[in-house]
Design brief:
Rossmann fold, two-stranded parallel ribbon
Length: 94
């Protein structure tokens, strides 16, 4: 916000092991497929809550005094690895 000293940022988390996602993680553990959780993620895993908290702490700190108006993905690189759909002039994108 202009002139108020208030900074507004957003943390955009990826798959994170929390109470809300516990059933998913428990199901994967019961089925022996925990290796499949986060398999599309470049880091090959979900996040831990502390990793998101670290970003929140950074944004609240003086070290982030010039960070404003950002949506910061804390998703292990998943969002940056999505393929880009290109539309070709005069052709239908497949």
């Amino acid at each position: 916000m202009t002139g108020t000293g208030v900074r507004v940022n957003a943390i955009c988390p990826g798959l994170t092991e929390t109470g809300m996602t516990k059933p998913t993680f428990d199901y994967a553990k019961d089925k022996g497929v925990t290796h499949k959780l986060g398999q599309l993620n470049p880091l090959k895993r979900g996040a831990q809550p502390e990793e998101l908290a670290n970003m929140a702490l950074f944004l609240a700190s003086d070290q982030a005094s010039y960070v404003n108006g950002q949506a910061i993905a804390v998703d292990g690189g998943l969002s940056s690895s999505h393929p880009v759909t290109r539309q070709l002039t005069g052709q239908t994108a497949v």
